[in-house]
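Why do we care about 3D structure at all? Because function follows from shape, and shape follows, mostly, from sequence. That is the central idea of this module. The next example makes it concrete: a single protein chain, its amino acid sequence, and then its structure expressed as tokens.
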Amino acid sequence: MYPVDLHMHTVASTHAYSTLRDYVLQAQTCGVKLLAITDHGPDMADAPHYWHFVNMKIWPRVIDGIGVLRGIEANIKNLQGEIDCSGPMLGSIDIIVAGFHEPVFPPQDEATHTEAMIAAMAGGLVHIISHPGNPNYPIDIRAVAEAAAKYDVALELNNSSFTTSRKGSEPNCRKVAEAVRDAGGRIALGSDSHTAFTLGQFDHCLRIMQEVDFPQDRVLNVTPRRLLDFLEMRTGKKIAEFAEF
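And the structure:
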């Protein structure tokens, strides 16, 4: 059990079913101390308007003892690595997860996916790449892992990729974990919850990390402080309300 979950969706993404309050209540029962709400970026068909992200600054930082990061699962939009998170949105968001989604970037070929993903990391805004093991978007896993280490972007192991989403991901996820291990990069774990009941569930991710002997000192979710220090290093911003985390 890790006390940090870095990928989940609320009712603001209309194919998800829980509220911010639901996630806080669930966190209190499952041992999660710090969570990132990462609703889909506005280029997705059922995503919230960009005002949703701009206005996240009104959220309390700590709710009933649970730390809440203001995040987004942005869409990688094109070969240049552009994402749908820019302008005023950037002033309100703490953590940017980004990945491919069919309505925004239709699947193409390995070379195209690899180039776009590396370009997104090189752009400097993205902190975590979501579900890079998706078999619908084949990539040069070794090249992506080496670029992720170079740009200090974590690659995600996404627990829902083993259960309800992106079927057939497991072999790729194992290769991602091995490649990140060998490249010296970081792993981030995300439940990718679309309902609060799966918050903090990483059982499949943990199994993969054990199988490849992934070093715990490069897993962002081990403590809230490790994740917060990573974000501070990447953004240059310290969030005062999390000083005790």
